[in-house]
């Protein structure tokens, strides 16, 4: 008996954008059993070529409005209201804000934060006039900064960055910190730049083990598009499928007897049929062979397609932590829903991000600008009490704002009456909260004598 030839094993093929593999994902067995993270996917995270990963994320950012909104919206909202400089003299504040605009700090900061979200990291590099024999690899001595030393503030993207070395000793003070970076091959100490590292979860040494070399040369974090990549594929694919149904909404099928013979002998009848089909169908038509001449229109059924498209977009909105009212401009659902709570929670998250990420960045920016305007020694004294304040993004309506203002006014009145604060302090606090805006001093009305108004009538009730 002749032995059966052994079947060649099927080559394992790359699966497009699949998160799971194993028994639960590839067979009809238990859907939740023995499934592991897929190693055969088109997801850019599984590509060890970090340049190819960056290119994929940039392509999505440039061509997909969904990806662009995921990256841009939090940065736009965080920088929507200008930061306020408090505890500085008004003239000093004006000079700082003029320099802030002169060096395009907001534009450069916006670009750097956007690149950090898109590619996992970025660097803001100030260009100072250097002292003789001063090396960029050494720590910047701020005491040497003089008036007019700042020349520009540049944004350096991750394609020009690399980390020359990293501290792998957990008992070292420099562990898990960026000490220096290579910028186009030139070593620059971290004190000479503002490093936005994308909130990397692991130290660079740990990334080699835990992420299987899937990280960039700086050891920065991953793109914000990475956990949403597969969902982006499905969202865009669903929209394209819906558009395909639109094209099929007016599909004409024209049947003709002896179609093959018409084509064979070069009869003009086929060309006539094609002309008729083009006149009857605004999108597309097909001519098939049949027993008789017949026209049939195929209508696509949309059914719940619009709801399916919106459901995917809402899932993407939830995955990106941006409410649908902001991400899609969509009215909130429900009879009594206003969407205010979702937006308020979102703006609270943005405010938290401002304090944790934006505050240190802008503090460093104003240190550079202050040293440029007055020199470091003078700026160190001026900035001692400087406070950066971010106005709330969630705006109260007129009724709510008046209630809050009245509460503060009554609070300061009570504190004044019991002698905790004096009148000038009350006026200063009310002005700071924009409740009291009249340009007067406390002495202007505290020293005025109280005079009873004249009575316009004589004792007999007659007008004088």
List keywords for this structure.
13 strands, 464 residues, 4 domains, alpha+beta, extended
Characterization of the model:
Helices cover 43% and strands 13% of the residues. The protein is an alpha+beta fold and 464 residues long. The protein has 4 domains: 14-46, no CATH class; 55-224 and 320-394, no CATH class; 231-298, no CATH class; 398-446, no CATH class. The strands form 5 sheets. A 3-stranded antiparallel beta sheet has the order 5-4-9, with helices on one face. Strand 7 (180-183) and strand 8 form a beta hairpin. Helix 7 runs antiparallel to helix 10. The longest helix has 35 residues, at 340-374. The radius of gyration is 34 Å and the shape is extended. The termini are far apart.
Principal-axis shape: extended
CA radius of gyration: 34 Å
Instruction: Bin the helical content.
Output: 40-55%
Number of domains: 4
- Strand pairing plus helix content: what structural class? alpha+beta
| Count of runs of 4 or more consecutive helical residues | 16
Describe the main β-sheet briefly: 3 strands, antiparallel
Give the SSE order as H and E letters.
EHEHHEHHEEEEEEHHEHHEEHHHHEHHH
Number of strands: 13
Give the rounded overall mean pLDDT.
79
Give the distance, in angstroms, between the N- and C-terminal Cα atoms.
Answer: 139 Å
């Amino acid at each position: 008996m002749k032995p059966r030839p052994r079947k060649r094993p099927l080559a394992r093929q790359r699966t497009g954008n699949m998160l799971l593999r194993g028994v639960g994902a590839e067979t009809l067995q238990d859907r939740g059993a023995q499934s592991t993270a897929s190693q055969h996917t088109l997801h850019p995270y599984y590509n060890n070529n970090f340049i190819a990963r960056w290119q994929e994320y940039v392509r999505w950012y440039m061509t997909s409005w969904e990806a662009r909104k995921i990256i841009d919206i939090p940065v736009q909202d965080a920088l929507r209201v200008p930061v306020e400089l408090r505890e500085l003299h008004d003239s000093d504040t004006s000079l700082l804000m003029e320099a802030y605009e002169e060096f395009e700090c907001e534009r450069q900061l916006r670009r750097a934060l956007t690149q950090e979200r898109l590619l996992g990291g970025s660097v803001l590099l100030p260009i100072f006039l250097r002292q003789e024999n001063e090396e960029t690899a050494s720590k910047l001595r701020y005491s040497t900064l003089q008036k007019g030393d700042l020349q520009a503030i540049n944004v350096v993207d991750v394609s020009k960055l690399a980390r020359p070395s990293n501290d792998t000793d957990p008992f070292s003070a420099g562990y898990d910190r960026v000490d220096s970076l290579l910028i186009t091959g030139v070593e620059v100490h971290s004190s000479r730049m503002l490093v936005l590292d994308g909130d990397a979860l692991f130290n660079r040494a740990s990334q080699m083990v835990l992420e299987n070399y899937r990280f960039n040369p700086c050891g920065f974090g991953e793109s914000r598009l990475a956990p949403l990549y597969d969902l982006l594929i499905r969202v865009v694919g669903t929209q394209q499928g819906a558009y395909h149904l639109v094209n099929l909404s007016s599909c004409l099928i024209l049947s003709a007897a002896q179609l093959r013979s018409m084509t064979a002998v070069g009869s003009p009848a086929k060309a006539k049929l094609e002309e008729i089909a083009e006149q009857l169908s605004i999108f597309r038509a097909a001519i098939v062979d049949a027993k008789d001449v017949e026209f049939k229109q195929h209508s696509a059924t949309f059914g719940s397609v619009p709801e399916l498209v919106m459901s995917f977009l809402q899932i993407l909105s939830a995955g990106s932590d941006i409410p649908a009212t902001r991400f899609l401009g969509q009215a909130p659902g429900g009879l009594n829903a206003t969407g205010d709570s979702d937006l308020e929670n979102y703006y609270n998250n943005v405010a938290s991000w401002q304090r944790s990420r934006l505050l240190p960045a802008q503090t460093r920016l104003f240190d550079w600008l202050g040293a440029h305007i007055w020199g470091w020694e003078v700026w160190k004294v001026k900035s001692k009490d400087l406070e950066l304040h971010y106005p709330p993004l969630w705006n109260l309506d007129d009724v709510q704002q008046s209630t809050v203002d009245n509460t503060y006014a009554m609070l300061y009145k009570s504190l004044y009456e019991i002698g905790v604060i004096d009148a000038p302090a009350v006026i200063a606090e009310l002005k700071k909260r924009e409740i009291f805006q009249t340009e007067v001093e406390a002495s202007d009305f505290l020293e005025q004598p109280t005079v009873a108004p004249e009575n316009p009538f004589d004792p007999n009730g007659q007008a004088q």
